[in-house]
Structures are given as structure tokens and as C-alpha cells.
Amino acid sequence: MKVDIRELGQFNHLASQGAERAAESLSQLAGVQMDVDVTDVSLVTENVLAETFTDRSFVGVELGLEGGLEGETVLAFERERAMKLQDLLMGVTDNGDSEERLAKSSVTELGNIMIGGFIDGWANHLDTAINMTPPRYTEANGPRILPDQAIEAAKKHGVFLFESKLTGMDVDLDFSLYMLPEYRQFVQLLSGNDQGNQIPVNRLSTFEELAKEGAGNAADQIGMMTGLDTTVDVSRLRFVPLGGVPKQVGNDQFVGVVFELTGLPSGYLVVLFGEDSATTIANAMMPGGGAEEEIGEMTEGAIKELGNIMTSGFIDGWANVLQTSIEHSPPNFVHDMGESIMSPVVGKLGQQQDYAFVIDSTIEIDGNTGQCDIYALPNERELARALSALPARD
Amino acid sequence: MTRDRRRADSPPTKQVGIAEYAVVTDNTRLSTSGVGSCLGIVLRDGFNDVSGLIHVMLPTAAESRDGNPAKFVDTGLPLLIEKMVEAGASKRRLEGWVVGGSEMLSFSSDGDSIGSRNIAAAKQAFEHYGIDVAGTDVGGGHGRSIRFDPADESVVIQTADDNTTQTI
């Protein structure tokens, strides 16, 4: 089965609009103004679900969808944030005892209304009725906040996960809306007619595995150059509106390198270190050399050199599997706010596309002391072409 | 902690993302981050108290195949003007601020950078619509975050260098 990336974009747009409507509902109900940060969709495996939700405790409202769109929708708050929301709803004072008072009914009702707003646009787009089952209040740790069916599907063939993050404009409140459509029906909905924009759905997960391997190679390179322990923490292939890419990176200060990729697919690869991680790495790469306290020429040289090697390792895996040739430019050194670093990258990609496949991988360095994020943004049509051209496999 | 805990002396801040815009008719601050090669353009009609901010990525819609007008200088500016007029602004009273257009990356495949072409397109569009330029902070090789405060019509710009801010 094939998915049309324009259809995927269309559904992403619907989810994004739905999240805006959900935010409006909340604003009317509780007087809380929310911004919808970003909406993305990814085809995730059981492992990715586990990595995404692990070590977090959630309160949520879950309801099923039937009819024109089947699946499950979950509105999830991190537990402590749910208390805040309730305080806002009830206008009560927090006296540290709020766990007892968590009014399930008010949270459930709120979830019901917000999910209703979220789903409205989908029914219009599909020109069919979508029925909602009664909302259920849930509490869980980790991925168990998601419905069992979704976790089962993730084990078998992966599951499409829509995620919208909402953040309070003036209150410290944030939560996520998740939509997990039933796999087979949704893949049918995504099938289009335009050959040039189609990707065989099973290749999407192939590509994700590839990204994982690429990140593994890159992590090994850091280990070899610095002698520090490295592990790949998360690797995920997301489909995001271009404007959402910088938001995912965030606005902390980063030190890193940006590469332009040429070949099939072309695109960009961005390697970012936190400032402290960059200094640690640079010092580890030049033992005995003049250690730098601040980010200077020595750190720049070290990060460029390391970035070059990591990038070669990362894209070698693609070229092998895709049986194409991919080259990278010399490194562009950057030291700036994360969102600004991504601005020219999405600008360049924006000349050809509205959405981006973003592969983001996090490499933990030396336990928790350092971190490196790799963002790969291939040209979407070229990626579709390269994946489609692969020989069929069972 | 009550629902009224928002302090009256601190107006809310509306975040505007890339290829998005916002129009307000009160003292809500308008903010956007990640302005690298992109531009943040603020328009204001102080008489009618209408303010707008748009975060555009590219100079002209003609060089892309997609249809979101808020992504481009040449289609984004008229879109923002239109929405502000709908909200009660008068076209001839508009003044504007332009921030961004830096050159952070250079690749061999580049002609002119996106940043400098964005600045040129904004200059042309301001002239075309007859909008007075109240302030600019453009070019360079660094990113910016900006926040517009309608109350005193100031644009506060934050850069990564020493984490400094300046106001135009």
C-alpha cells in the first residue's frame, strides 16, 4: 500500500486546525489562552512509543472514533499539569492536597468538548459522519496512557501518531492531543493518484530504521573521537509542517554544524550540541591542548571536524540502502538560538515543499552530561522517489 | 491559584510561528522567535489601536509551488494589511518595523542569500503599499527573537550574542 505525501499533509493540516479549535474550547470554558505549538504525524513502532512516553505519568481522556474515521483519540496531561488545569477550572486554591480532589468528571467533560472540536474538521473533510464513543477518564504511566489497540498495532506494523502540543500563553500549562487512526482504514484514506508523491507505506518504517542506524554510526564516531561513552536515545521520523520544525528544536543556545546534502535525496543535515556539551566534546577531542572555557576557535574546529565525520557516517547508510549517491557540503558552523539556526534551512526547503520529513535523533554523551541532536531533512519528493525505486521486498 | 491570577499589569503575549501572522486590537504583545534568514514584520495603526505581526520565510510566492500566502513577503504583507483593515485599521495610518534577514549559512549552490532577498522584497513591498518605516534591524549573521508591545509601540529584539536585547 502506498501513501500520498500530499494527503498526509492534508491530514496534518486538519489535525492542526482541530487543535486550534480544541484550544478555543478551552479558552471559552476556562478562560485560559492556549497556543498550539506544533502538530506532527509519525509512523511509530512500539519502541518509539515506549521511548516517547517513558517515565512520565499522565492523566487523560480517551475516546474512540467510529464511522468515516476509526481510531482512538487521547487528550493527555502530565499528571501535575492536570492539577493545574483543574485549579483553573474550579477556581480553587492549591493546598498541596489536590491529588485527592482531582475531579475526574470535570477533566472528562473538558476532554470530551476539546476532542469534539478537534474532530469536527475531519468529518467535513471526509464528507462523512464520525461518531465518538463516550469519553473515558484514564490515568497511566508511560505508553499505557494510549489505547491497547494502538499499542498492539504498533507492534505489528507501526501506528500513525498525530501529536499536537498546546502551551498556555500566560499560565504554566501544557498538554498534548494524540490521535491514532486505525491503521488499515487510514492508509486507504492516504492513498492518492499522483505517482510522484507516493511512498510505499512499509518503506517509511525502513527509512526510520535507517535513520536509527545513521544515528548509531554518528554516535560511534563521537565515541571514537572523544573516548566518551555514547548512546542513541531517541530516533523518530516525523512529518511536520515546515514552520513546526524550528519549534521542535527549541530556542536554547546551540553550537553545531549545518550541511547541505546533494544527490538522491538532497536536503539538509543539522548537528547541534548544547553549549556545555560542545565545550566538553572539544576538550575531550584535544586532551592536553589549551582548554577553552567559552565557545571559541578551538571548539569551532573540533565541532566542524566531528560534524563532518558524523555526517558521513549518517548518510552512508542512506546511500547504501537507497542505492544512490549522496554528498555533503563543507560544514557551516553555527552558534545561535536553535530556532534561528533552523530558519534558513526551512527557508531553503520551503522553496519546494510545505512539509518536511524530519528525522531527529538524540545522542546521550557520557551518561547525562552531554547531548547531541541530529536533524535530517531530506527533500520530500526526492525521498519519495528514492524509496519507491527500491526493489520490492517481502 | 485562581483563574484570575493573570496580573492586570502584564498583558498576554501571543506567539506567532513561522509562516503565521496575528492581528490584535488591544495591548496583547506579539512575539516571534527563530527569525534567522526569515523576516518578522510588525505593522501598527496607533490611532485605531490595531497591531499585526507576520513571520515570513521567503521573498516571493512565485518561486515556490505552495499556496500559504503568509510564507512570503510579497503575499504576506498584503494579507496582513487586509486582516488589519478588517480589524479596523486604516491603510494610510500604518507604520511598520522590519527585523531579520540575516545570513547564517552559505552553501555553494546559493546565489544571493534568502536573507538579503527577503530584505529587498520587504523594502519594495513597503514602498508599494506606502507604509512608513518606523524601525529596522536587519542583516548580519545572527538570529533574533522579537516582541512588539502595542502599549509603547516598541519592538524588543533579543539576539544570541551575550543574550543582549535592544529596542527599536
UniProtKB/TrEMBL annotation, chain A:
Pfam families: CheC (PF04509). Residues 103-136, 302-334 form the CheC-like protein domain. The keyword Hydrolase applies. The keyword Hydrolase applies. GO terms for molecular function: hydrolase activity. One of its GO terms (biological process) is chemotaxis. InterPro entries: CheC, CheC-like_sf, CheZ_family_phosphatases. Keywords: Chemotaxis, Hydrolase. This is Chemotaxis protein CheC. It comes from Halonotius roseus.
UniProtKB/TrEMBL annotation, chain B:
The keyword DNA-binding does not apply. SUPFAM superfamilies: CNF1/YfiH-like putative cysteine hydrolases. One of its GO terms (biological process) is chemotaxis. It is an enzyme of class 3 (hydrolase). InterPro entries: CheD-like_sf, Chemorcpt_Glu_NH3ase_CheD, Cytotoxic_necrot_fac-like_cat. The keyword Hydrolase applies. Coiled coil: none annotated. GO terms for molecular function: protein-glutamine glutaminase activity. Its EC number is 3.5.1.44. It catalyses: L-glutaminyl-[protein] + H2O = L-glutamyl-[protein] + NH4(+). Keywords: Chemotaxis, Hydrolase. PANTHER family: CHEMORECEPTOR GLUTAMINE DEAMIDASE CHED-RELATED (PTHR35147:SF1). Probably deamidates glutamine residues to glutamate on methyl-accepting chemotaxis receptors (MCPs), playing an important role in chemotaxis. Belongs to the CheD family. This is Probable chemoreceptor glutamine deamidase CheD.
